[in-house]
Amino acid sequence: MHPIQVPRRLLTRRQLIQLSGISGMGLLLSSCGSSLFEDIAGKTFEPLNQSVETLLLNPQKPVPEFPASAIQPDALLINTFDLTPQIDPEKFSLTIDGDVNNPLQLSMADIQKMPLTSMTIRHICVEGWAAIVQWGGIRLQDLVALVQPKANVRYVYFKSADGYYESWDIASALHPQTLMAYQKNGQPLSVDNGAPLRLASPIKLGYKQSKWVTHIMLVSNLSPAKGYWEDQGYEWFGGL
Ligand SMILES: Nc1nc2c(c(=O)[nH]1)N[C@H]1C(S)=C(S)[C@@H](COP(=O)(O)O)O[C@H]1N2
Ligand SMILES: [Mo]
């Protein structure tokens, strides 16, 4: 049951507008390219500034990356709070739902047809170690666009096969370097590092980067349960 058409390249502005299912006047005006109309649209629709569709249409600034020569292949320590789940990649499916118009279940084959992004960034664990790592995967923003989020979406929950759970603010989730990764340092992701699919992003601390993600849920409010470590006292935003 994978009746979706996955994009073969990055989504264009026009496709995003169609996908988001929200063709508000602000979007129509600002895509026509007139600065006068952009001024008007900007003022008229100011309350929508942090909304999911505005974030999708206005990509955030990327964080500078490292050259491949800077990768530290042995520095990324395995940090797993409990058991390591063994997931058959052939049977794996990622569920994306919540406040969306088009909930999806995707196989790894579906995911690997989507545009692959590579980045070399620093992973920082609050336990006192860091590692420069190359990650390959799909942009979370492409998945979010596919499910057509409703305008009230502000947070994203990630559930993992080992019982780990996390929540992120929507802006960080839609950052162009927030990936659902299936490669590490040029190789398929290992089970210990979260195979078949994990979060990777240069704008959040290590504990925000869920491994073995099976379920992504877009929501308008945070629940009392915010994250595995956060619920034991760690700071929620976990920004870098
Ligand atoms: N599902 C799951 N994700 C997780 C964790 C975990 O225990 N379970 N640990 C987190 C922490 S604290 C860090 S630092 C990184 C470590 O990633 P690594 O084991 O691939 O180095 O994974 C994060 N994601
Ligand atoms: Mo960590």
Explain this structure to me?
The chain is of the alpha+beta class. It has a single domain (13-232), classed as Oxidoreductase, molybdopterin-binding domain (Sulfite Oxidase, Chain A, domain 2). Helix content is 20%, strand content 24%. The protein has a 5-stranded mixed beta sheet. Strands 3, 4, 7, 8 and 9 form a 5-stranded antiparallel beta sheet that branches. A hairpin with a 5-residue loop joins strand 1 and strand 2. The radius of gyration is 18 Å and the shape is globular. 35% of the residues are buried.
Keywords, please?
240 residues; alpha+beta; five-stranded mixed β-sheet; five-stranded antiparallel β-sheet; 20% helix; binds ligand MTE; binds molybdenum atom
Bound molecules: the ligand Nc1nc2c(c(=O)[nH]1)N[C@H]1C(S)=C(S)[C@@H](COP(=O)(O)O)O[C@H]1N2, molybdenum atom
Total helical segments: 7
The count of domains is 1
Distance between the termini: 38 Å
CATH superfamily: Oxidoreductase, molybdopterin-binding domain
Mass-distribution shape: globular
Q: Using DSSP, what is the number of strands?
A: 10
